[in-house]
Amino acid sequence: MPDKKLQLRTEHRKARPAPVQQKQIIPTGKLLLVTVAGLTTVGGFIADWNKTHLFNPNWPPHAKFHDAMSITIATFLGGAGMYLLLRKGEYLQRDTQMAAMLPAFFWASQGISFAFPGAKGLESEFPELVPRIKGVWLNEKFVAIAMLSLTGIGYTLERQRQND
């Protein structure tokens, strides 16, 4: 009788299907890079296509030209990054590197812009629109640092995954 119980337990174990290992739909690093590229692509339209920037009656036409140029550059850099991340090809590591670098150019430019004489964030004209936490403005500089940080983390994670 004990042998029969043991046999049933063994058969029961054999009958169970092996646990299915769920494949992650999109790896974390790639997800971060896709998010940054996507936000870079549409961010200018979201942030600037309004009365504070492109439709600001106090802005001269040349200032609006530069804003439109900034929106366009971000759209191209983010779109190119997205394309490189999502295409299939034999140059995966190079594509990942370029996909991280292209949107990062825009965010680095935005952050560095604060070093230019007289350049300030949105809070200089519309302080009521910019959140502030413990005295720190969550303005364009904050966003640039956050996006560059997400890019660095995403790139590191994705390259580690590719090298595994």
UniProtKB/TrEMBL annotation:
The chain crosses the membrane at residues 31-49, 69-86. It comes from Planococcus halotolerans. This is Acetyltransferase. Keywords: Membrane, Transmembrane, Transmembrane helix. The keyword Membrane applies.
